[in-house]
Amino acid sequence: MFGAIEGKPVFGMPGYPTSCLSNAYMLLVPALRRMARLPPLRMNTIPLPIAQRIVSTTGRHQFYTVRVSDGQAFPAFKASGDITSMSLARRLHRDPGQHRKS
Hints:
The chain is an alpha+beta fold. It has one domain (2-95). The chain has 2 helices and 5 strands; from the N terminus they run E-E-H-E-E-H-E. The strands form 2 sheets. It has a 3-stranded antiparallel sheet with strand order 4-3-5. A two-stranded antiparallel sheet has the order 1-2. It is globular and about 50 Å long.
């Protein structure tokens, strides 16, 4: 939620730590950089194979925390309220949700 109260910006973030951190990277940081008249943050994109199968919802764009080892991305996500899994992650894996169920 973005808005203003008495001319001051207000940012409402989700309650779960992993959701809050993900939304901060994708929504809050770009907004704050624009407000500060800084250039957009360039994300470092590295295409890597996923070491383990990640089950996701078809048609739903999702992001997963991963750790990188031996040139592969390993899922670090455990549960949306688990901040420990976020501390182990070094990257985000983007799943555009365009695959079909088998």
